[in-house]
Specification:
The complex is a heterodimer of chains A (631) and B (486). With 631 residues, chain A is mostly helical. Among the domains of chain A are: 246 residues, no CATH class; 88 residues, no CATH class. Helices cover 78% and strands 2% of the residues of chain A. A two-stranded antiparallel sheet of chain A has the order 1-2. In chain A, strand 1 and strand 2 form a beta hairpin. The longest helix of chain A has 38 residues. Chain B is mainly α and 486 residues long. Chain B has 2 domains: 194 residues, no CATH class; 223 residues, no CATH class. Chain B has 19 helices and 2 strands. Chain B has a two-stranded antiparallel ribbon. In chain B, a hairpin with a 4-residue loop joins strand 1 and strand 2. Chain B is globular, with a radius of gyration of 21 Å. The chains are: A mainly alpha (631), B mainly alpha (486).
Chain lengths: 631, 486
Amino acid sequence: MTLLALIIAAPLLAGLAVLALRRAPEAIALTGIGIGFAAALALLAGTFGGNAAQLVLSGLPRMPLILSAEPLTAVFSALVATVAFGVLVYAAGYMRADPDRPRFFGTVLLFVAAMQALVLAGDWITLLAAWELIGFSSYLLIGFWHGRAGVPAAATRAFLYTRSADLGLYLGIFVLIGWAGTSEIQATLAITGTPALVAGLLLLVGAMGKSAQVPLQDWLQRAMAGPTPVSALLHSATLVAAGAILLIRVAPMLPAGALLAVGLVGGVTAVVAGLIALAERDLKRLLAASTSSQYGLMLLAVGAGVPVAALLHLIAHAAIKSTLFLGAGVFQHDRDSTYMDAVAGAGRARPLVFAAFALAALALAGIPPLAGFFSKDAIIAAALAAPGAAWLVPLALAGTVLTGTYMARALRVLWGGAARPVSGKGIGWMGAGMAPLAALAVGLGAAFAPLEHGLGAELPPEGTAMILGLAAALVGLALGWFLGPARLLGPMLPLAQSGFALAGGMDALILRPALATAAACERFEQRLLAAQLGLVRAVGFGSASGVERAEQRIHAGTLAFGRLNLRLGDRAEDTDKNGIDGLIFGLVHRTVAAGRRLRLLQSGLIHRELALTVMGIALIVVLLLAAPLYS
Amino acid sequence: MPLLSLSVFLPLLGGLLLLALPRKSARTAHGISIGTTGLTFLVTLAIWARGTLPGGFAQVEEIAWIPAIGAAYRLGIDGLSLPLILMTSLLFFLSSIYAARITDRPAVFVVLMLMLETASIGTFAALDALLFYVFFEVSLVGMYFMIVGWGYEERQRAGLMFFIYTLLGSLPLLLAIIGLFLATGSFDMRLWIDMPPLTGLAAMLALVAMLFTFAVKIPAFPVHTWLPAAHVQAPTVGSVILAGVMLKFGTYGLIRFALQMTPEAFAQAGQVVLAFGVFSAIYGAFAALAQSDLKKMIAYTSVNHMGYVVMAVAVAALTIDADLRAVALNGAALQMVSHGIVTGSLFFLVGMLQSRAHSREMAGFGGLLGQVPWLGWAFILSVFASLGLPGLAHFPAEFQIFLATLNAQPWAIAAILAIVITAGLYLRAIAAVFLGERNGKWADMPDLDRGEKLAIVPLLVLIVLIGVAPSWLLGMMDATMRALQF
């Protein structure tokens, strides 16, 4: 119980402290994140020892907020804490020169707290709240350098893409709560039949947005406008992971139809995003597209009915991708850019960083005995054993080949260009943050067996899968190293570089129609207003004489309104000068007088009507107040 | 001690005191204003401390008035009206703090504002229909003079439009009240609620009349057109009170009158009301998206947010599942309070921006976050609350409204599209005004001063508090809503 609270509260309070104090941000941040890290590891040990725990807080009536510690949530929590710890150590170096550091560390800590709430959520409201809060804090982080051109647009786009897809999550949750009569996640997973199918598909939409699956993948690459440690954090174990985490958690509920949809979305994304990564001209954007592609493979595993394979790949990918991003950040510091042309040869100047980067790249491709090898095998094995194997196996293998191809290409660029000497400054904190994550990318595979055991999950046999996966990885690496994207993709290259933006992409399909609808509403609004003013005027005209009517047409609305009310304004001023005794009734009388004068000027019944009504109300009030006297 | 009467008439007494003073300097006027509204706020807190009853009205105060026609001075509260009264007294208190910078005829302004507060709290506390109607109408007069006397460029036109619109709009309510009176011989609202007197056609006619009045006030499509005009031209404090407090008269009346006094007719007409709610919500969001004037944009989002309330009330009328009903009405009640706090905050902030820049056009700004961080971050927090971010005030309300809607009237969930549109328009506003490259024109714009912070910070704290732990409000709302008989 205390551990559960501590995991979230430590980063949260540290974040608020950083924002409030605005000094020593690194020290406070690392303390908070360190406490959270220790608590998460303790929780993991506890739950694997058989101690499940719950923390119930008051939420909505009959729908309390629940944090739940079970083996699966504890694994996620430990993963988030580990990556966050490494990234923050790295950020202490990366952000050293930034005057706005407190805001950076404060927001990252809030982000981590929200992510921990998401993985530990035991009820749907907590999950949804945390889900949207990580979207919000990533908006703040992507938009961290908000004064730079293009950054606000990238942050806005990231939030809007994911929020649109979140509608799926909202609706899915409403279906689940409505059907089960409770908001507890565990209880709602018992739902079967059509509601389960509908809810499953709706949740898939939400997950597609967060995990940047086709066709909602575009925001992720643009999100590279944020500081690199942010990218490392968002892409490995947190923001993007939320979608996969959601599907892994609800996998037991998903019926066959929903599973197939999940698998296909994932498989298609693995291939499409892989092609985009291959065509990319910017190292960070290549890594971003790769993230979509890898999460595609995880969804494929969920769709194949083996969520634990997705879990293993999620864990391996978290360590690998954070290492890759942190490495890219070092090169970015050296060359002030992440364009492929700019970072060409940057790896030679920093052999150690390059070594870590290369190990992570090979791990992602699936070379034994690195971490990615085991998880990718598990995914291919799951695809082979799945009912939809005919679809899933080719997609999984193509995704694996592409992973090898784009990673080999990145390695070649980093190693191949001319090595310029670096400024000689050490990378201190950055290296300290990167090293443990790289070590995990290499050695995590050893932890997978006990993990499976602890979760009580079994993987399908891996014999064929191992051979297929390794062959695909090697083919991919060779293709990427020896052939350029232009030769590999041929005529598809421009399309892939544009991110497969078919039919003008999301902007043309959603943004422009929305703005057009808005403009139409505004035009209608003006007409409605004119019609209503006309109606009021017509009522006035109807009871006036013909002569008046003709003249009133000339004195159309606005002018006359203005005149009357200027007078009223003056009156109000007079009252103040004369002392404001009898203010209300004085004003009423003057309004009546003004109305009478204006009626003489034949400028409209509206004013008379107004005056009369005011007088009428005043009369009613007086009569009523006096009522006890005569009744 | 009759605390309710005290909270209703304390502001009026403050106004009279000011009138009686021989010298009315700006300092005295604002001093009296802040003192009175502050004291009123404390009184409403004491009312809160006394608490409500799980069913029916608490802290009832009754004095014979016109026994011949069964009209009496009757006040009382339940879990629906108490939160609104608390919100009202807080918003008036903060408004009077912010208004302390007004130098143009301050004494008249203060008297108007205090009169408005009496009328507003009275509207929520009245248990006698005649009394309700009087308060309801008096608030209108106060707001009219506030717009016309202290508004912006086109204030006369907007003020008159507001007045005619809402005045004509409230006449049908009077007819409905007379109808209910004729059926019972009393103006006691409790009587009408405990045993709805009208049936059949009479009930339907009364309902239609009430719906018309409250739809104008809420405002719901297509009788919302006065709102953007009035808001854009109203002075900052006027906008805050208009959006924060006076729109709630409409939604409060929708529940207290339409739903509670003509429940059967409401259930029959439920689908129509629901359709208006859904359409208002979506239409308001799109109309807001089309605006380039910040204040007008926020005004239209009120149409959107209040549309959700209409939906929730209709859903409650249409369903017989007690749990779903409570969820829908809890959402509606909380949405009113959240909207008051959040939109109040937004109108304060836009007013603060306008008083510095003398412009509300989004395109004219840019990069202000670095220049005026307090104003910028307060705006960002309020905006994210308004677009329904969890952890902030609107989320618990909208979550319950949509949850009930999907499970009772699935088609109406189409309105949820609006939460994406509002997200889009708000983020665009943030990006245009506060992010991006700095516009050199505003290089000497000052950040919020102490008085402005005093007005805005309590609202920001409440936005977070309601979002994170809404149970202190939802608890009393839920107790009342579950006990509603209709």
